[in-house]
Amino acid sequence: MKFLFAPIFFLFISFQGVASSQLERVNEPNMAKFYDEYGNQQGNPLFDLGSWHGFSLPNKSNSSGFAGPAIIFEEYTLYFGEYIEKLSVSVDGGAYQTLSSLPNTMSSELGYFKQTFRSNAFTIDIYLSFASDRSSVIDTRIVNLSNKPLELSLKWQGQLTQHWESETDSYVWQVKPEISNSAISWHFSQSRDTWHKLNQNNARFQIARSIPSQSVFNSLQQSYSSVGKTVVLPNNTQLITSVLSYTHNQQESDSEDLKLSALLKADKEAYLNAKNRWQLLAKTVSNEHHEQVEKLAIKSLETLVGNWRSPAGSIKHNGITPSVTARWFNGVWAWDSWKHAYALAEVMPELAKDNVRAMFDYQITESDSLRPQDACMVIDAVFYNFSNARGGDGGNWNERNTKPPLASWVVWHIVSKTNDNAFLAEMYPKLKAYHNWWYLNRDHNGNGLIEYGGTVDDIHTNKESEMRFSVQTSSKLPALKTCKKDKNNWYACSGNSLYLDLLEEARVNAFDIPVQHAAGWESGMDNAARFGFISNEQFKEYANQTYQGDMAKAKADWQVKIFENVRNGQLVGYSINQESVELNSYLAMEKRQLAQMAKRLGNNQDAQKYQAEYQTLKARIDACFYDSTTGFYYDLAIDNTPQSTSECKGKLLVHRGKGPEGWAPLFSQVASTENAEKVIINMLSEYEFNTYVPFPTAAITNPAFGADVYWRGRVWLDQVYFALSALSHYGYKKDAQQLLQKLIRNSKGLNEKDSIRENYHPFTGEQQGATNFSWSAAHLMMMLDEIGLPESSLSQH
């Protein structure tokens, strides 16, 4: 399969491949928070063109109109309506007849919905599609099949959701309806509920129609109805247009209103633009040899486009969010963005570039008022609202950490596919600065091998520049006199010297260190075993098997230490006490790519510099992180003393088990062939990583492995992609193809119209985590394109 560069413009094309949506779009929400067990909004609503509202199809028995809308209230998706624009028709003054009582068909096509209703006198086709990043359009085409004029009275109805999160939990939307001759608008009262709903006082949802209508809003029932009249001449057709828009503020409303007249006066159905645009997109991922590949690629593309958010609030460029249906995911994250943009580099290149820019818009500068010591860092997450520290009231904006350095990887890929040297020139200095930041702020011992860590942040650091942490103990320790006691024998403390003292205190049962969590987030593998995360039961088992039950000795193996990073006498951040094989492999790959970029830009000095650094770091990764006994790469635990750039002193964290970090040197192509062969033996072993759904985020033999633990057992598709790429790089392409086939066959829902999930159970293939998950979709596109399925599989279709 080849993804071609596809500029988006409207023309008619003939595409004989998959035309219908590969996602089940039927859904009937009856609550604002229509959550499943993982906190996802149920259903796979249609969003397009970066819209902030979307719709679902109703079920067959209630098939007139559309379910929703689902509206993204700045940071949270809520179902505003149970249904909208349900149509009934009165012919020649007779009783109203609901369209769903007529013979009908309903379908979800690529980029639009279609409903068709038939009677002896007329047919009505209703289409829903998106016309802009704020407006959707419902086209209603009425065909008079009789030889006399049809006098029609059309009644549209809508019902807002009346429950918040359960059927016993009544909820009344704080909205003020505004009714005119051709529109009904709902103006939202301001809500600044940081963790549930955020909107400005002048946010608005509006329905405008191309024919005059009389509207009534029932405030008690939270419903509305609108009635319009029209006459359709014999054997003639009439098109009625409704434009539905959600806008965050008055400026957006004014801008969208300027487009309204043209949309309402259109002489053809708006869905045709969506149809042609999506046919062109589908053509870029078509596979003439394998329908299964094509369907999965299209479903992946639909997922990415559904999570596309256009600029709004603090999001300055178009970006792909992780998931529109998952509760916390309506923002743009750093390494998520790199993955999304990589997959879209040929299919939607301008969106891919914008997704990169959306993160670099907030690359820290030297004049930054909050964290000038982090100049050149790219922050973890950008949302509609700034954090409190930035003067906003958002809860999801995050500067506690960055993410793995894959920005150069995606930029070089975009440039390689588009030959856009202007984009390369734009990004190169930013990438170079970000690369150097790691060596300034995350190299505690100065030896050129980098650690994950966290920033100076109110959650990590108090006003006296002391690190915050908590300990749990049932003993009354004198050292805790400066700490604040909390519930369950937990004490909130601060100060690095106190922290180091308490590390040696046997009577301390547990630590909770915000920087440790941030370091896990910085890696993207939040609670991975290598960062010291293990369940109490597993820890006890480890102590019994390793130290005959000596908990103190066992604790020393799993306790992560935090080092303060100081530059020119100023605290600039924190490192954990382990140099990361994965992080340094990415940085080595980045040096190679920066050298390629510099050469392309004619900067030979930089090209030679980065190429030399690449060769040095490549050799050190083999020398410092590889364990010959187990045939795998691990992080290296270090102490608090400076080292030279030729040293790699420390202890490999073999005892924390094998994880995906061990094949990062192979993905980055920095592992020696000899070492790679040994790693691949582990990767292909059914006793390590080759599970029913392959490549869990901890080996089965890992002491902290749990099949249902976020980053200690569940299968994440980014790590599968890195694994399959690693195999391919070192001559195991056929194994990679067979494992990809195994992944697709055994991961539940991938071959169905279920949403693509955040992760999967390694033993059962059960779907887990967020629905409609972008980086899973992105990596499926990458794997189908770069790895492919076995030829034997292709020949069967």
Architecture overview:
By secondary structure, the protein is an alpha+beta fold. It contains 19 helices and 35 strands. Strands 1, 2, 3, 4, 5, 10, 16 and 17 form an 8-stranded antiparallel β-sheet that branches. Strands 6-7-8-9-18-15-12-11 form an 8-stranded antiparallel β-sheet. Strands 23, 28, 29, 32 and 33 form a 5-stranded antiparallel β-sheet that branches. A hairpin with a 6-residue loop joins strand 34 (759-760) and strand 35. Helix 6 packs parallel to helix 12 (581-600), helix 7 runs antiparallel to helix 12 (581-600) and helix 10 (536-547) packs across helix 11 (551-558). It is globular and about 90 Å long. The protein starts with 52 loop residues before the first strand and ends with a helix. The model is unreliable at 1-15 (pLDDT under 50).
Write a short abstract of this structure.
The protein has 797 residues and is α+β, with helices and mostly antiparallel strands. The protein is 30% helix and 22% strand.
Core attributes:
797 residues; eight-stranded antiparallel β-sheet; alpha+beta
